[in-house]
Amino acid sequence: MKKKLVYEPKHLPSIQEDGLNDVQEIIKTEKAYPERRLRGVLEELSHGCSQFLALANKDQNQSGRTKLDRERLKLCMADVENIGQQAKAMRSQVKKSTVKDKIKLSQNFLTKLRFLADEPQHSVPDVFIWMISNGKRIAYARVPSKDILFSNTEEETGKDCGKVKTLFLRIPGKKGFGPAGWTVQSKIEIYLWLGLTKQRKDYLNGLPNGFEENKLSKGPGLPCSPPISLTYMMKQIFQLRVHMYQARSLFAADSTGLSDPFARVFFSTQSQVTEVLAETLCPTWDQLLVFENVELFGEATELRDDPPIIVIEIYDQDTVGKADFMGRTFAKPVVKMADEHYGPPRFPPQLEYYQIYRGNCTAGEMLAAFELLQIGPNGKADLPPIDGPTDYDRGPILPVPLGIRPVLSRYRIEVLFWGLRDLKRVNLAQVDRPRVDVECAGRGVQSSLIPNYKKNPNFSTLVKSFEVDLPENELLHPPLNIRVVDCRAFGRYTLVGSNAVTSLRKFIYRPNDKQANNWTTTEEIIVVSMDSDRGHKKMETVVKLDSDDDGKGKKKKRKKGDEIEEEELDESMLDWWSKYFASIETLTEMLKAQEAAFSDSEDKDEMDIADGGDIKPDDFPVKGTKRGKGKKDKKKSIDAFERRKPKLDELKVYPKELESEFENFEDWLHSFNLFRGKGGDDDDQNVLDEDRIVGRFKGSMCMYKVSDDMPRDMNVDSNMGMFQNIPHNDPINILVRIYVIRATDLHPADINGKADPYIAIRLGKNEIKDKENYISKQLNPLFGKSFDVEATFPMDSTLTVSIYDWDLVGTDDLIGETKIDLENRFYSKHRATCGITSNYAIHGYNVWRDPMKPTQILARMCKEGKLDGPHYGPPGRVKVENRVFMAPTEIEDENGLKKQTDEHLALTVLKHWNEIPKVGCKLVPEHVETRPLLHPDKPGIEQGRIEMWVDMFPKDMTAPGPALDISPRKPKKFELRVIVWNTDEVVLEDDDIFTGEKSSDIFVRGWLKGQQEDKQDTDVHYHSITGEGNFNWRFVYPFDYLMAEEKIVISKKESMFAWDETEYKIPARLNLQVWDADHFSADDFLGAIELDLNRFPRGAKTPKQCTIEMVTNEGDLPMVSIFKQKRIKGWWPFVARNEEDEFELTGKVEAELHLLTGEEAEKSPAGEGRNEPEPLEKPNRPDTSLLWFLTPFKAIKHLICNQYKWLAIKIVTALLLLVMLGLFLYSMPGYMVKKILGA
Questions:
Q1: Residue 722: C-alpha distances to residues 248, 508, 718, 861, 958 (Å)
Q2: pLDDT of residue 486
Q3: What local confidence, expressed as pLDDT, does residue 555 receive?
Q4: Which of 263, 437, 652, 944 is deepest in the core (most CB within 10 A)?
Q5: Where on the tree of life does the source sit, at the highest rank (predicted)?
């Protein structure tokens, strides 16, 4: 039994868990150096893993183990060794900036260790403890036997073996599951020890000292039995002081969304309760509970080091029925012995937060302190006095003493009441006259009443304030409660919903330090030109190009030399999509660059891609490259990028919602969700909380200490307090322009695994369904649509963009939707109404679309921020406050004429607005945001993503121009004409029956990828004995092509029953193959080549220069694009794979590729093959079909000498023998007559 304990690294999880809890507590309480504690935890874990391996190796070869034991030991040893190594390696990577990430990794270690520590096959049954009343089992506790198993080796002993532990008994059976079983039926303190009989002498070693054993009297020679009872001669008398200050974020136990909480405290054999506080989730009890004459047994030193546990349970008081359980937490008191001094650093104890648990879920926090004071020989006279505050009397309820209760200061809390949004019905009645009550620490303020919520849900009085005494320690600040009530007939008030703001830290106003204002005396010049930003982008891209793998890198380099045509972009060919695709490419390359950088150096500081941080090429060593080559590679990369993407303005593509980049646009206006109804007991608490949301309160808070020496500014409005320069909240008419680009990864809605998506827009009472323009059978539809909707803030403030699936029969299905709070965007200081473009232009693809020009925007922002400026001049300079910006002052109009303008200067300041002192913040750039699509019935599960952006224009200002045309590019009609002139060195497959020479009947086949049904063949060149073929044959391939995406567009029905044509986009690739024609069998494939029409190797001028390297090593060769070159002629190799699966050269083809637009093809048509119009000449082929007739001797020689040599010899020999036999028979009679006659 003892040996099996080695298999379980069970002490490691508890060591790891305690350490991680310490680290998280340090971070939570903002103490210094959490990274040091985490390093210590990882060091302990690594050391513990080493200890386990040493013990496991020692016991590895012992007998008496099953195969499961042996295999489990191997698994444990391998995993623990791996965890130990990772922990050791991670220890050196822990830094202040990476603590949170490393904690997550450490949590993974903890999960793995817990899994390993769990014995899959229990060899010893668990211990059950039952509480029985009148023969009925009332409650029980189950103790795992492994936790109380004894071993002589300390590391192998169970964690609770030989210790006095507190056990909580629960209800047996089905009643014990769920909320009903969370309440404790009984608490017992018990000492358990389980071991072998031979180890029985050690079973009492863990008990507190000072007892006498009472044994049964036994005869001599009988074995020693355990005592029937223990009598403690030593007992200590204590007084327990429980300082219950407050709790926050408690469980909502009532249907109103609030609770009436009180706390019950259990210690030893006593319990006490706090007072009940009505209708709150953040009670401040401020109560001292004193437990008198608590008797504890054992030695004083043991009790000091390991005091018993205090159990605190939170309940909700109900007028009818018993109290509802809300949560539980545990604490250990700080112990003071009679001979110790009551003073720092241990006393008086500090208030601490304790996490409250309800089942497996967290259910709030409790702020309290616990002290256990020994009563000495002089009795209670030696105990420290209870110094309560003298300013108020609460009768028998004692407040928390002065030394422990927080030091209070006078704070003023100013509340901005903006409005209420999306309020749901309460008790089947609509909310009509709501009011907001704000309360903190017993003080509060009420908002003005909204007379008609439907007509205007904003408050008439914006700012109100109240003063309250709050702790100086910000971590101990009580929550601020927001309640919304509806004022109904006959003076009734109905609670609509509530919210508890648990942390007020972000609302604390901190005046600027005097030393921080030194900027006023210095002038800083920031030189920013239009080219510098572009250069910055190039530098960012350096990492992208270098971080690709070798093959891709070569492709980029080869572009350097051959795509010089792209240096000068034809602006007439550019549109919004050119900018969009260039921006997508930049985003993709930035993500790759960051990925490569992190994989190369994990301990580098984190980079924020979305902020476009300066990525310097020298910061990150690139895989597979030497450091010394950096400058050379960098120069090549910049060169390649300059040639590839010059002078193309880009927008910012955010891979997530715009709100996540700009802190939900809550720079001064915050949204607080209002909750109502009981909280759920599910594990997924967030999902249940969403169901409890009944509306939102919009407003803000500002809190600051009240002091006499506060500076008073004579220019401020005293009614607005700290909320100066905020706009009015009167209704305002807005033109909202929604641009939807595309959706990606949509959830299939049809049985064929596809969807027919279309867009639906809802804003207030306005609803647009673009049902007619649904896109058939697409999960990644390209919409390219814009919608104009008029709205009135605050009534129409939530924009809903939905994607529906079109159905021929029945109602359309919602795929997903996204909701945007337009009001916060509109009023935000980040100016999210219309994005700031990277450059100012008055025509072309990058035209300025905001009705206000940059100079007007800058002047307005300087006025609102009370800034000095802008001051333009000398030419090319602008000064705002103490900052000077430089930029070009010329702009080209549509005719190419240059004009003087200050717009570039103003735009430069706006792009660097976050550098402006006092009021600077990052302004929203021209952008595309990617938002997740969610379904109300499937909360939390993403149904796809949508790329879009929103512009907003007030109707009382200059009207904006027409919406940008972002309609999807229509594919352009092209015609590719491929003339196959000749082939050479084609492998010979056939043997000539007459001449015996190798030959092939060659023909060439070609088609465009995706159009295999339109494949075309040349005529056959028969009996080629040299591999040479002459064709002069033209293939003609019309196709639709998207220039921006470099794809061919094909539309066809998937089946004969399909309702619509499905659109496919395929890369533009030309396939050419060479075949050997056979009359009586299938044609033989000889070789092929596939040419990417956008990037393929330039054809060789002669057959000799045409080699297999044009296919295998194309990275080193100049590449061309038929869409740039239009016409190209040359030799290309045919290749095929041999038996070793390697490419081998099987022929060469001379071809001419000619690309024409649809209009050009109509003007100058050409026939297929050699047909009219523009017929090609017939090839001058050698006539090998009658070759045997023209050279008979050669044919006869081949037939006789080569193929039928032995047959000819046999035939000649047989003929000679026949001739001789014939002559013999012919001459024999005459010869015999002569002999007979004797002539």
A1: 27, 11, 9, 19, 32
A2: 92
A3: 37
A4: 263
A5: Eukaryota
CA-atom Rg of the chain in angstroms: 44
Q: Which one-letter amino acid corresponds to residue 580?
A: Y
- Helices then strands, counting H and E runs in the chain, come out as 20, 52
Distances (CA, A) of 606 to 545, 615, 617, 652, 663: 21, 11, 15, 20, 19
Query: How far is the C-alpha of 890 from the C-alpha of 905, rounded, in Å?
Result: 10
336, 370 Cβ separation under 8 angstroms: no
CB atoms within 10 A of CB 304: 16
DSSP string over 896-945: S-EEE-SHHHHHHHHHTGGGSTTT--PPPBSEEEEEEEEETTEEEEEEEE
In angstroms, the first-to-last Cα distance of the chain is 133
Crossing angle of helices 99-117 and 11-28, in 10° steps, is 160
Give the CA distances from residue 584 to residues 652, 656, 928, 1024, 1045, in Å, rounded to whole numbers and listed in that order. 9, 13, 10, 52, 12
Question: Highest mean pLDDT: which of 31-35, 396-400, 944-948?
Answer: 944-948
Instruction: Give the pLDDT confidence of 186-210 residue by residue, as tens digits.
Output: 888 888 888 888 887 878 887 877 7
Burial class (CB in 10 A: 0-12, 13-18, 19+), 989: middle
**What pLDDT was estimated at residue 635?**
39
Lowest mean pLDDT among 177-186, 555-564, 1001-1010, 1099-1108: 555-564
- Confidence label for 16 from pLDDT (cuts 50, 70 and 90): low
- Report the alpha-carbon distance of residue 959 to residue 954 in Å, rounded: 8
Of all residues in the chain, the percent with pLDDT exceeding 90 is 29
Beta bridge partners of 951: 737
pLDDT band with cut points at 50, 70 and 90 for residue 1192: low
669-706: b (≥16 Cβ within 10 Å) or e: bbbbbbbbbbbbbeeebeebeeebbbbbbbbbbbbbee
- Are the C-beta atoms of 23 and 41 separated by less than 8 Å? yes
CB 971 within 8 A of CB 959: no
- Encoding tokens for residue 272? 């006490």
CA angle 528, 530, 534 (to 5 degrees): 105
Whose CA is closest to 865, among 913, 918, 924, 912? 918
Q: What is the mean predicted confidence (pLDDT) over 639-664?
A: 74
- DSSP notation for 975-1016: EEEEEEEEEESPPP-EE-TTT--EEEEEEEEEEETT-GGG-E
741: left (phi over 0), alpha (psi -120 to 50) or beta: alpha
Q: How far is CA 273 from the centre of its chain?
A: 46
- Beta carbons of 582 and 648 less than 8 angstroms apart: yes
Mean pLDDT of the chain: 81
What percentage of residues in the chain have a pLDDT greater than 70?
A: 83
Q: Which two tokens stand for residue 427?
A: 């008790």
pLDDT tens for residues 1039-1071?
A: 999 887 788 988 877 766 666 677 788 899 999
Burial environment of residue 487 by CB neighbours within 10 A (0 to 12, 13 to 18, 19 or more): middle
Residue 1209 neighbours by CB under 8 Å, 6+ apart: none
> Which residues partner with 804 through β-bridges?
758, 814
Amino acid identity at 501 = V
| Whole-angstrom distance, CA of residue 497 vs CA of residue 186 | 37
Residue pair 734/723 in contact (Cβ under 8 Å)? The answer is no
d(CA 1014, CA 1071): 12
Among the listed residues 825, 830, 824, the one whose alpha carbon sits nearest the alpha carbon of residue 698: 824
Contacts of 159 by beta carbon, 8 Å cutoff, 6+ apart: 10, 11, 14, 147
Residue of 364, 333, 367, 325 lying closest to 168 (CA atoms): 325
Q: Are 111 and 46 in contact (CB under 8 A)?
A: no
Look at residue 858 in the predicted model and tell me its pLDDT: 92
How far apart are the C-alpha atoms of 652 and 19, rounded to whole Å? 43
